Amino acid sequence: MRTLAPISLVVSLLGLEPSPALAGDGLAQTPPMGWNSWNKFSCNVSEKLIRGAADAMVSSGMKAAGYEYVVIDDCWQTKRDEKGTIVADPERFPSGMKALAAAVHAKGLKFGIYSDAGTMTCAKRPGSKDHEAQDAKTYAEWGVDYLKYDWCNTDGQDTRDAYMKMSHALRATGRPIVFSICEWGNSKPWIWAQGIGHLWRATGDIQDCWDCSKSWGGMGLVHIIDLMADLYPFSGPRHFNDPDMLEVGNGGLTLEENRSHFSFWALFAAPLMAGNDLAAMTPEIRDILTHREVIAIDQDALGMQGRKVRDSGANEVWMKPLSDGSRAVILFNRGSEEASIAVAWDEIGIFPGAKARVRDLWKKADVGILTGRYEAKVAPHGVVMIRITPQY
Length: 392
Ligand code: GLA
Prior knowledge:
- The protein is α/β, with parallel strands linked by helices.
- The chain has eleven helices and 18 strands.
- The relative contact order is 0.11.
């Protein structure tokens, strides 16, 4: 009988460095879910804010819906001490990071933090360049479970080498830490980052708007959706394209647009990192963020990213294959008038004559058992998201 050489053997024969994911850390089998401080609070982070976010994650039902990581983004750090150890802002984090991590853990949640591969973070706090092993060790001692690693102030550094260095440093601590690569898709990380990080940003910074764009690279929802369209071959368990954290509930999108945003992130198998004020969200926003059937599309075991199967100008059809043989489908109306949009079975890989059960996810209602196609009216800037299950 022929046996296949284990991946690790192939890797060492090829002279490649073993990487964390190949070594099998078991993390991020499905896209990570959690909350991050940046989109709503930017530099205004504190121990109080993080404790409040952890409390609200539990009391709002977000934890029960699957959200797990509470991540502090930029600005928690101030300097390095005489031994080079990174120091958290003593005024904003008086109990220290170890105690804060313990408080988050006590809620049954996981704790995440942020650093940068360069000399300084984007907000000009100390970066991890030349301190990778020391920082990884410090994070592990604090009880960190997730590191977002940014790419500001990295002149002259090689992207892959820099991320590989921190990936190894994290691995060397022996603590399972999700590694979130954030270089905005500049060097096409979907080509090289599998096995180095568990997720990688694929785009510039999301803005809380439908289609605005900023000269420095920030962009609204539809621009991110468009940039994600071609990246579907690169997603899978332990390696996900990251279209950035959610703006759901931050005020710049209508309820319809917020639903479109969340639907697309689920179809993309995107990390679901809420970016709003969890303690102050409306019931409508909570219902979007905790929608079980839409989250199940995101968390499907295949980890496949959905793709666009039809583009007729303002009307689009997107499809994501799911592990039970059904398909998640988004009928997307970019236009400003209501539109009727149809999906035909043969454009989503279902035999045209087959009967299939159609369920409208946002309505939480079965539409029926249909043959060949389904058509629905879609609100402006809205989606109809359905799950189509062939009956064979
Ligand atoms: C970059 C990242 C953002 C955020 C900020 C913090 O812009 O892409 O997500 O982390 O830095 O300064």
